[in-house]
């Protein structure tokens, strides 16, 4: 049939582009989530939960189990749902362990405190630093459990209904049901929105994440519950799931969404407007040194040096990550970075949420906490040489925060989380000896030394003397420890009982303690005099002194000068102020008085009885259930469905048969996620076009490994005219045959793979596979005689012989880049890999690829150097489609279409074959700038249209085993020589809602004759 050579060329293009080392997103680069530890889970069973844990201390598990059962009873009152089967809960001992979880996909960031997964309804969460934080996360995530149950167990609802649910409703319910309607932190953000005149309606909240769905959602659901009753919140959720929130309001309360939005805004303005009248409340005390004008919009956890000249703080100043900066504490001039996620490749993150660093007594060193290799490390930075760092692993303390350096410089004190309990620890910097200072079920955070080193002040949930004995205390109080006494006695200060009192710091005179409290419904700075017990309010701010959470340490005192630095929330951002003690207006207040009017979410007067607030007010000291109802059970992996996706199914018939199109993908896993099974089934055409894959991944150990079995059909259709012979009753006649060829390549493959993540940014990959390729050709013949159609039939034609390929490969990959609008903005990427291929072909594939991105706001300077090569005796073979410099992402302006436009600009000796080879070398430079997108990032602000402008310079050369590269233009056209190709020009990358990136460009290609003519082109891929 004369098809063999032609067909082998076609199928080789498909097969070899899959086998060749061409970049593929998700495998070629990408970050990792290493499992640094192997967790041996046990199962603790309660009446309503199966709790998977690895604690050695049974009392911790029992306490966690009681908390889950407590929240189950609370939420049952509003959801009116009973668990028929026990719900799975996976508990991690600390946040660094939680970041290694295999139960849920994706990276776990510092700010993610828990996850509820839909199909298995698993709650995956760590023990946090305070009992209150752990309690809140459990309450929050269990709301999602009830929500998902209503989605999947009620026949009228389904997974598709999730798209009707705005995030502000989902998360707002979780926050309201777990916090209630009195929350100073949410109220602070609402007051700020009113003051800015940027209070959203429900449509704004649905369309834009500018309005935090947790905080604004909390405020709205609290408004709805306080106005129409908590009992209507779950029906509102169900109706929204079915019909969308607009119709849900009409069905539940008989009002339009616009009317409900207006009522919410009016109630909020009426409640907080009287607090706006005092204009002095909007003016922070002291001098603003860090703000949007000279830094970022989030300037967090400021820590001032002992002499008051320098301040270290966390900020998103560079817009792509939260880094640790150093600034002049007098002027706010940014002096540089002390730590950066783009610079420290093996650091997995910094806890800028609820931790502050500490200065050495001489002000030359700074210590902060970082996440590395599945635990917290102390990072010691030389302030004069920030790149000279020392990472300190504290024995026996996997999780820690808020270090405080002793005045004599010999040791640190920090809060450490060990086996589910947060205590204070002393760490000797010379000997690495660890001393535990507290040992009980209470939480201890924000420790700070007195100037003479004798006393330690901190925040703790130890109760005050006035606290009721029959009620559990989850609020933070101030306490002092005498380090000179061998028994280290602790005194809890009777100050603002029932408020959150945090971040205590001694004055330089050691006669008083600064601290933050929300006792007045705001978050202000107070002073407690140690001798008299008198308390003074030093600030009276409309918003408050705060960080991202209400537990973020936000004040720091210069030990030598007494100057106070604090983080002030206003206008949606966090600014740092510096103030002298005498600048504060000292107002004496009653230390026993509490006023939560400003912290109550409106409407203040509730016309209906409370369900949620009444339930939250009961915090029993004794466990919910007796110990004999809890049981330790053998580990039950519960292998089951985790994800399912379908492209739908379609069927068509004609006289030549029935065709189908559609597919389904499913993922199964055990309850912990250590073992995962992936299946994909698809068909697109006839029964021969059925394909499928089964893959297995084991993530239990440090090395992830697995395998796959697949059968994949690849189909090509071509049309041709041939002369043929048709048999008739009168005998054979010559006819024209318009022949539709359906050419199929089948790949059956068995593969094994393994990956060793060294850190989140580096890994080693290995793999091996064997694949069989075979072919089928079908023809639909349409016969024409003298221009008239005279018949049709179908036949199977002879196909080329099949062959097999075996491969083994090894790669070393690094990626700490940060993606922007349509391409990486900062960091680096690299890949070094080698592959041995044998069977039909005997050769090696080699990849050496390095890319670097330098961010200089607003520009990114991107550089790359790449070599793809095939080596060995079969490197230049006819089966594999050659590497082509015109591939998308290689050298722009040299694809086949544009070459036809500019072929006259090249030397007469230039041929298309000079763009092909078994080896290529690529170089590139781009200057990128975000064009449209978020205001902080792009030249033109846009909430939905994200684009990036770039000017590029591409270079590349392709050669074979019997050709050589020359840099002499005069020899570029000689036989056996290859001269590099270049192109330059502008491009515009358009991010289509995260689904696709388009890159129209105008390239000026040039070869030995230089630039002659520009050409248009279009790529469908992100920037390199």
Structure in words:
The protein has 1024 residues and is α+β, with helices and mostly antiparallel strands. The strands form ten sheets. It has a 20-stranded mixed β-sheet that branches. Strands 4-5-3-2-1-33 form a six-stranded mixed β-sheet. The relative contact order is 0.09.
Features of this protein?
globular; 13 helices; 57 strands
> What's the total number of strands?
57
Give a quick account of the main beta sheet: strands, pairing sense, barrel closure.
20 strands, mixed
Shape: globular
Q: Helical percent range?
A: 10-25%
SS strand fraction: 35-45%
Radius of gyration: 33 Å
- Subunit organisation of the chains: single chain
Structural category: alpha+beta
CA-to-CA gap between the ends? 44 Å
